[in-house]
Structure to design on (126 residues):
């Protein structure tokens, strides 16, 4: 496959600034992100490759499996506000238009019930 086309499919034309911001986020991850990354990295879940803080179009996805077109988003208390929920819904609609399924978990779910979270993610993998 042509590498340029592959990168476009993988990142949907993300700007260079998105890559830089994603890199910064990888160095400032939350405890919940660290915990989930430890459970997903190195193809630990059903042999699927996940990327963390993945630049895609105008967004940064917390975790992304390109093979299955699955985004996993972790939400802290910031996401409880009405404005943020509206933004998250709009963002999810845009990602769906790209053919990407989005599943969301609260940070507390990762901290308290990681097995259930992994089970739900596993059910969404292709």
């Amino acid at each position: 496959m042509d590498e340029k086309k592959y990168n476009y499919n993988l990142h949907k034309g993300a700007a260079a600034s998105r890559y830089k911001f994603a890199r910064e986020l990888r160095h400032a991850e939350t405890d919940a992100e660290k915990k989930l990354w430890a459970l997903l990295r190195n193809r630990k879940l059903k042999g699927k490759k996940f990327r963390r803080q993945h630049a895609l179009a105008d967004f940064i996805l917390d975790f992304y499996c390109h093979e299955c077109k699955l985004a996993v988003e972790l939400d802290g208390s910031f996401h409880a506000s009405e404005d943020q929920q509206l933004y998250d819904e709009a963002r999810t609609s845009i990602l769906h238009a790209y053919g990407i399924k989005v599943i969301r978990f609260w940070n507390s779910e990762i901290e308290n019930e990681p097995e259930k979270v992994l089970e739900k993610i596993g059910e969404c993998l292709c």
The helical segments are 3-11, 16-26, 31-40, 82-97, 107-112, 114-124. The chain is about 50% helix and 20% strand. Strands lie at 51-56, 59-65, 70-75, 101-106.
